[in-house]
Design goal:
The chain is an alpha+beta fold. It has helices at residues 12-16, 30-38, 42-46, 68-71, 111-121, 169-172, and strands at 25-27, 49-54, 59-62, 77-88, 91-98, 134-137, 144-147. The longest helix has 11 residues, at 111-121.
Length: 176
């Protein structure tokens, strides 16, 4: 089952900077991941990486400080966030994974797409995001918010935020 497709909703100048071929490394199989991880230094593997799950369900990875829109090549995604890996019992597993992407602001329900992409690669993983980020758009001032401690109040103008994900009006209205 595929979830929503999320379009980039972050700063326009970051999307404008995306160049053809600048996307993340496609990880469609265990062999792809083995090749990718073998090319990483020990210092790189200590930090999380930027990831997106493309609209085709394939995992893409980029260095941590990469923009998600660049990792996705400017395209729509099924999820986005940060991910870290660790060796365990002779194989690599996902240690932590979040939906923390202020460029795509994916809902926590996008976990199912992440889990499917990781399962296709054969990577063991947690049963959900290890840190869930709840994004909402303020109906009053239209600013994007991160909801903390279930306090659904806009940090910019004090308006109430909806319980349901609403960051992208195009998706919210059924345009995905």
């Amino acid at each position: 089952m595929r979830g929503w497709n999320y379009r980039y909703v972050g700063p326009a100048e970051l999307k404008a900077a995306v160049r053809p071929g600048s996307g993340g490394c496609r990880i469609a199989s265990a062999a792809d991941f083995d090749r990718w991880v073998a090319e990483r230094s020990a210092a790189e593997l200590v930090e999380p990486f930027t990831f997106v799950v493309g609209a085709d369900g394939v995992l893409l990875l980029a260095p941590r400080r990469s923009e998600h829109v660049s990792c996705a090549g400017g395209r729509w995604v099924l999820s986005a966030g940060e991910i870290s890996f660790a060796p365990e019992a002779g194989r690599w597993v996902v240690r932590e994974v979040t939906n923390q992407s202020t460029g795509y602001c994916p809902d926590i329900s996008s976990w199912s797409s992440v889990a499917q992409a990781l399962d296709c690669v054969g990577l063991g993983h947690p049963s959900s995001f290890t840190h869930e980020v709840v994004f909402r758009r303020c109906p009053g001032c239209q600013e994007h918010n991160i909801v903390r401690e279930s306090d659904f109040v806009c940090v910019f103008c004090g308006s109430d935020l909806p319980e349901k994900w609403n960051v992208d009006p195009l998706i919210e209205s059924g345009g995905s």
